[in-house]
Amino acid sequence: MRRLATTLGVLGSSVALTLGLAQSASAANGVLMFNGGRWENPTGCHASNWPGDPAVIVNATDGIAFVYSDLYCKGDLVDVLLPTQARSVRHAWSVAFY
């Protein structure tokens, strides 16, 4: 019985530490430019205001930009732009920062 209590205690502590160390969502510092739209310190999902194929994306932030093929950042991931990258991306309809 004592071993079971110890095992459950260790398991509970590790879960608590894991949940406590999870990072909260925060905005990227800088500017996202996406098909003529401009977002300061972007966070979450940003849909293109002026759809175009290919899309012109400038990630002038300190965060990673994930590019998707739909308007809601839930479709196929089509590209990833690291901080300070810029390029044309085919089938890009939204950009997300997590």
Order of helices and strands: HEEEEEEEE
* Main sheet summary: 4 strands, antiparallel
Q: What is the general shape?
A: globular
Rg to the nearest angstrom? 19 Å
Oligomer: single chain
Structural class: alpha+beta
| Strand percentage | 35-45%
Q: What is the number of helices?
A: 1
Count of beta strands: 8
Helix content: 10-25%
The order of strands across the largest sheet is 2-1-4-7
Average pLDDT rating:
80
Terminal-residue CA separation: 44 Å
List keywords for this structure.
98 residues; alpha+beta; four-stranded antiparallel beta sheet; 1 helix; 19% helix; globular
Verbal overview:
The chain is α+β, with helices and mostly antiparallel strands. Helix content is 19%, strand content 39%. It is built from 1 helix and 8 strands, in the order H-E-E-E-E-E-E-E-E. The model is unreliable at 4-24 (pLDDT under 50).
Summarize the entry for a quick read:
The protein has 98 residues and is α+β, with helices and mostly antiparallel strands. It contains one helix and eight strands. It has one helix spanning 2-20, and strands at 30-34, 37-40, 44-47, 55-61, 65-68, 77-81, 85-89, 94-97.
